[in-house]
Amino acid sequence: MTQAGWPKGWAVFRLAKEVWNETEPELTEKDKYQNTIFFPIGEPNKSYAQYFVGQSYLAPLSTEQVTMFNVTFEPGCRNNWHTHRAVSGGGQMLICVGGRGYYQEWGKDPVLMTPGTVINIPANVKHWHGAAPDSWFSHIAVEVPGESGSSEWHEPVSDEDYVKLK
């Protein structure tokens, strides 16, 4: 067995000390939130950005049999009022998996969503969903198969109504 000797030994010690003293880069708010949820946040939701106020992200979970996406909203982000149309069947299910957000049907009070909250949205019901003003929010969106299904997008949720949320 050979020995490195003091000069080489101290050089390795100094190098190891530098490596161990390196600090992790500061995490972004998005990365910190990602560390709190099981499903991936995904990529920026560019395809539907015109129907959102603020930044949302999409991560496909299933594109066969039943379509499911993890949809993540930055604080303050929400989608426009919209309706999932179908002649029969159809609609959507939302399963909150992180943060705090809201769901609201037209003409009804908003419903607070926290991890574990499940919302069943029948077809042809006008509604919106999104993050609380001060919280990231993620839900799994499950598209319920239906006959002649489509999504109809409406007006944005007004700032006046949104700021009333607790």
Please outline what is shown here.
The chain has 166 residues and is an alpha+beta fold. It contains 3 helices and 15 strands.
Low-confidence stretches: none
Radius of gyration, in angstroms, nearest whole number:
23 Å
Please report the number of helical segments. 3
Mean pLDDT across the residues is: 91
Helix content: 10-25%
Number of strands: 15
Strand ordering within the main sheet: 1-3-4-13-8-11
Description of the molecule:
With 166 residues, the protein is an alpha+beta fold. Helices cover 16% and strands 38% of the residues. A hairpin with a 5-residue loop joins strand 9 and strand 10 (111-113).
List the helices and strands and how they pair.
Blueprint (H helix, E strand, L loop, with lengths): L5 H16 L7 H6 L8 E2 L7 E2 L2 E7 L5 E6 L4 E2 L2 E4 L2 E2 L2 E8 L1 E5 L5 E3 L4 E4 L5 E5 L5 E7 L2 E2 L2 E4 L5 H4 L4
Antiparallel strand pairs: 1-3, 2-5, 3-4, 4-13, 6-15, 7-14, 8-11, 8-13, 9-10, 9-12
Name the features.
166 residues, alpha+beta, 15 strands, elongated
